[in-house]
Design a protein that fits this description.
CATH class of one domain: Alpha Beta
CATH superfamily of one domain: P-loop containing nucleotide triphosphate hydrolases
Strand order of the largest sheet: 5-12-11-6-10-7-9-8
Distance between the termini: 17 Å
Helix content: 55-70%
Number of strands: 12
Strand content: 5-15%
Oligomer: single chain
Radius of gyration: 66 Å
Length: about 725
C-alpha cells in the first residue's frame, strides 16, 4: 500500500541561472502596452525636438604651442617660460577661454558691424559674451596642439570666429613677449646707471690701498711666503730628527767616557771606517808576529821590526778612536746649531706671513667688491645689448597650423545619434516603468507569490474556453490531452503525495471571491478521482449560485436543499453521472436560509452517510469572503483546496482569507493557480511551475496503480469490490 514515492521536500528542481533573461522578457511582454507607450512617446518627443532645433555648424582652427622659439641669435630671452611643462598648455587653454580675449577678438573682428553674428541685436548687446559662448577650446592629447572651435548657425561666421580668436591670441602672445622684453630692458638700464658709480668707487678704493702698501699684487707675495714656510717646516723637521739621533749617539759615548772607558773600547768609535781598517791591520800584524816567534827569538831583527810596527799601529788606533769620538761630538754640535738656525728662520718667516695676512684682510674685501661690481656691471651691459637685439626680432612660439574652413554639414544636432539616444531612452524608460509596475503589482501571478502566503502550490491551470458553466468545462473528459487536463492530473498527484490530504475523504474547494474558478476545479478534480477508480461524490454546496447541475446536465428538482429540509432522502438526491465511479449532489431549489441549512443536523447526517459510501467527497463551496457558508462547513471537512485566479486579487486580500481558514483548524492542503493566460505573461508562471508538474506526473501512473489495487480490495462499507 505504501508506495516508494519520494517526499516533496526532497525534490530538487532544475537550477535556474542567477539572471533568467526569459523571465525578464516575459515581464516586458506582460507589460508590453506600458513599454510600447513609453517607447513611442520617447521617440516622438525626440523627433519633435529635432524638428524644433536650429542646425549649428562648427568650424575648428588649430594652433601649435611650440616647446622653443626659433633661435636666430645664440642668446636667451629676458622673459622665459618653461613651455615643456604641460601646465603651460593648460594655462594657454584657460587664457583662450578668458573674457578679455573674447573682448579683444570681438573688437578686432568688428562683430557689431556684422549682421550675421547676432541678427537683430542692438549695439549695446554683449558681443564678447556671445562670442565666448560660441567657443570651445580643447587640447589634443599627448601633443601641443590646441583646437579652437566656434559654433554658429552660419558656417562662414563660425570659421570667421575661430580664425579671429586664434589670430588675436597669437597677436596678444607676441605683444606680451615684446612688452616683457621692453620692460626688462628699461629695468636693466636703470640698474646699470645705479651700478656705474659704485663700480668706480670700489675700483678707486682698491687702487689707493695698493699705492699705500707699495704692492701690485699681495696674492703673489702670499704664495711666495707660503712656499717658504712649507720649505722651512720641512727642513726644520729633518734637522730636528738629525739632532735627536746625533744627541742620542753622543750621550751614549759620553756616558761610557764618564765611566772610565777608553775611546778604543767604545762601540760607536769602533764603527768608524779608519778604526776598522787599523783594527784589521793590527790583527794581521799580531798573526804575523805569532808566526815569526814560532821560528825566531825575541831578539831576532824580524821580531823586533814586527813588534815596532805593531806598536805604531796600536798608537794610530788609539788616535783614530779618539778622533772618532770627537767626530761624534762634532756631529751632535753641528746638528744642534743647524736646528737652532732653522727655528730662527721659521720664526722670521712666520712674522712675515702674519704681516702679509693683516694686509690681505683689508685688501681682499676691496678686491672682491671691485671684481663683483665690475662683473655685474659688465653682465648688465651685455644683457642690455642682447635684449635690444631680441626686441627687434619678433619671435613667437605660438602659431596657426590649421585655419578653420566653413563646414559643409551641421555639427549639432547629430540626428543619427540623437535618434539612437531617443530610442535607447525609450527602451530604457519603457523597460524601467514596466519593471516598476511589475515590482509594485502585488497581485498573485506566480508560484512564488502563492508560496509566500505559506500555501503549498498544488497545480497550475491554464485559461480554458468557453466559460466554465457548461458541459465544456469538464476539460478532463472533453480534451484529456490538453495542458489543463494535465494540470488537474497534477493536482490529484499533489494531493496523493501530501500525507494529510492523501487519506482525507472530505475535501472543500473554495476561493476568496466569486469568479476564480472554484467550481471548475471541483468538477475536474472529482472527475480525476473517479477516473482513478475512487468512488467519488461531488457535492454542490454553493446554495446561492449553483452551477454543477448545468455542468453535468442533471435535473434541478432534487438536490441538497431538498435533503436538508427533509423533503427527500439521501438516495433520492444522489444522482448518477455518465462518468464511472462519480456521483453528484446538486443544489436543487435555492433556499432562503443557506447558513442554517448547512449547519443543521441533516448536514451532519449526510456527511456521516457519504463517508461510509465513498472514497472521496468533494464540496464545491462558495467563496470565503462572499458568504459565511464555507466557514460553517469547515468543521465537517478534512482538508481545503484553495483556488486562486491568476492576476486577479492582491496578496493581502488572499492572506486575510487564508487566515480565516487556518483559524478554523482545518488543514489547507494547498493552492491551485487558475486561469493562467499563457498569451499575456502567464507563460512565465507556468514555465517556472512546470518542473514540479513533471515531478508529479512522473509518479502519477505509479500512484494510479496503487490506488487501483486498493480499490480491488473489499469495501469496508459494502463489502463489495469497486
Amino acid at each position: 500500500m505504501n508506495a516508494s514515492i519520494p517526499d516533496y521536500d526532497g525534490y530538487e528542481p532544475v537550477s535556474q541561472p542567477a539572471i533568467d533573461w526569459r523571465r525578464h522578457l516575459l515581464v516586458l511582454w506582460e507589460r508590453r502596452w506600458i513599454f510600447l507607450t513609453v517607447f513611442v512617446v520617447a521617440v516622438i518627443s525626440t523627433l519633435f525636438w529635432l524638428y524644433k532645433q536650429v542646425p549649428i555648424y562648427r568650424a575648428t582652427a588649430k594652433i601649435l604651442c611650440e616647446a622653443e622659439t626659433m633661435k636666430i641669435l645664440n642668446i636667451q630671452d629676458v622673459a622665459t617660460t618653461d613651455t615643456r611643462d604641460f601646465q603651460y598648455i593648460n594655462t594657454q587653454v584657460k587664457m583662450l577661454q578668458s573674457r578679455p580675449l573674447a573682448e579683444q577678438a570681438a573688437q578686432s573682428l568688428n562683430l557689431k558691424a556684422n549682421p550675421d553674428f547676432l541678427p537683430g541685436a542692438s549695439t549695446n548687446a554683449d558681443y564678447a559674451g556671445a562670442l565666448a559662448e560660441c567657443l570651445t577650446v580643447e587640447k589634443d592629447r599627448d601633443s601641443r596642439l590646441i583646437r579652437i572651435s566656434a559654433d554658429h548657425p552660419n558656417p562662414k561666421v563660425a570659421a570667421l570666429l575661430a580664425n579671429g580668436v586664434a589670430q588675436e591670441f597669437i597677436r596678444q602672445n607676441l605683444h606680451s613677449k615684446l612688452a616683457k622684453s621692453m620692460e626688462a630692458l628699461n629695468w636693466l638700464r636703470q640698474q646699470a646707471d645705479e651700478l656705474k658709480p659704485k663700480v668706480q668707487a670700489s675700483e678707486t678704493a682698491l687702487q689707493d690701498y695698493r699705492d699705500k702698501n707699495h704692492t701690485v699684487s699681495l696674492e703673489d707675495r702670499q704664495n711666495i711666503v707660503s712656499d717658504k714656510l712649507k720649505a722651512l717646516n720641512t727642513a726644520l723637521t729633518q734637522a730636528h730628527t738629525s739632532r735627536i739621533d746625533a744627541e742620542s749617539e753622543w750621550n751614549k759615548v759620553k756616558a761610557l767616557l764618564d765611566a772610565g772607558k777608553k775611546p778604543s773600547e767604545i762601540p760607536s768609535a769602533a764603527a768608524d771606517r779608519q778604526v776598522s781598517a787599523l783594527r784589521k791591520q793590527l790583527n794581521d800584524k799580531q798573526v804575523a808576529l805569532a808566526v815569526l816567534r814560532e821560528r825566531y827569538g825575541d831578539q831576532h831583527p824580524m821580531i823586533i821590526n814586527a813588534v815596532t810596527e805593531l806598536r805604531e799601529i796600536q798608537v794610530k788606533l788609539e788616535k783614530a778612536c779618539t778622533e772618532a769620538v770627537e767626530n761624534i761630538k762634532a756631529t751632535y754640535l753641528m746638528a744642534k746649531t743647524k736646528e737652532d738656525s732653522l727655528q730662527q728662520a721659521l720664526r722670521d718667516q712666520e712674522d712675515q706671513a702674519l704681516d702679509l695676512d693683516r694686509k690681505l684682510a683689508a685688501y681682499l674685501p676691496l678686491k672682491r667688491n671691485a671684481e663683483a661690481d665690475r662683473q655685474l656691471y659688465d653682465s648688465i651691459l651685455t644683457r642690455i645689448k642682447e635684449t635690444t637685439l631680441t626686441g627687434k626680432l619678433e619671435t613667437n612660439n605660438i602659431r596657426l597650423v590649421d585655419p578653420a574652413l566653413p563646414p559643409v554639414s551641421p555639427a549639432k544636432p547629430n540626428r543619427t545619434r540623437t535618434i539612437m539616444m531617443g530610442i535607447a531612452l525609450g527602451l530604457f524608460a519603457g523597460g524601467a516603468l514596466s519593471f516598476l509596475v511589475h515590482r509594485y503589482d502585488d497581485k498573485i501571478k506566480s508560484y512564488e507569490d502563492v508560496e509566500a502566503l505559506g500555501l503549498p502550490q498544488l497545480a497550475s491551470v491554464p485559461h480554458i474556453k468557453p466559460e466554465p458553466h457548461d458541459e465544456a468545462s469538464r476539460i478532463v473528459t472533453k480534451d484529456p490531452h490538453s495542458m489543463a487536463s494535465e494540470a488537474f492530473r497534477n493536482l490529484r498527484a499533489s494531493i496523493w503525495l501530501n500525507p494529510s490530504a492523501k487519506t482525507a475523504k472530505t475535501l472543500m474547494v473554495t476561493s476568496t471571491v466569486p469568479g476564480e474558478g472554484k467550481s471548475l476545479a471541483a468538477t475536474n478534480l472529482a472527475i480525476i478521482f473517479a477516473q482513478n477508480n475512487e468512488r467519488t461524490l461531488l457535492v454542490d454546496a454553493d446554495l446561492r449560485h449553483p452551477v454543477q447541475h448545468k455542468v453535468f446536465g442533471t435535473t434541478s428538482e432534487c438536490g441538497l436543499s431538498k435533503f436538508l429540509t427533509d423533503s427527500m432522502s439521501l438516495d433520492e438526491v444522489i444522482q448518477k453521472t455518465e462518468i464511472p465511479h462519480l456521483d453528484i449532489i446538486t443544489v436543487g431549489h435555492r433556499p432562503s436560509n443557506p447558513p442554517e441549512l448547512l449547519g443543521s443536523s441533516r448536514m451532519r447526517e449526510l456527511l456521516e452517510n457519504v463517508r461510509q459510501r465513498y472514497d472521496r467527497i468533494v464540496f464545491d463551496c462558495p467563496p470565503v469572503n462572499a458568504v459565511s457558508d464555507p466557514l460553517i462547513l469547515l468543521p465537517h471537512v478534512e482538508g481545503v483546496i484553495f483556488i486562486l485566479r491568476f492576476n486577479k486579487l492582491r496578496s493581502v486580500i488572499v492572506a486575510r482569507t487564508l487566515k480565516k481558514l487556518r483559524d478554523s483548524g482545518v488543514p489547507v492542503v494547498g493552492g491551485v493557480m487558475n486561469n493562467i493566460d499563457l498569451k499575456h505573461g502567464g507563460y512565465y508562471y507556468y514555465y517556472y511551475h512546470y518542473p514540479y508538474s513533471k515531478y508529479y506526473s512522473k509518479y502519477y501512473q505509479q500512484s494510479k496503480q496503487e490506488q487501483a489495487e486498493e480499490n480491488r480490495r473489499p469495501s469496508k462499507a459494502t463489502g463489495s469490490k469497486s
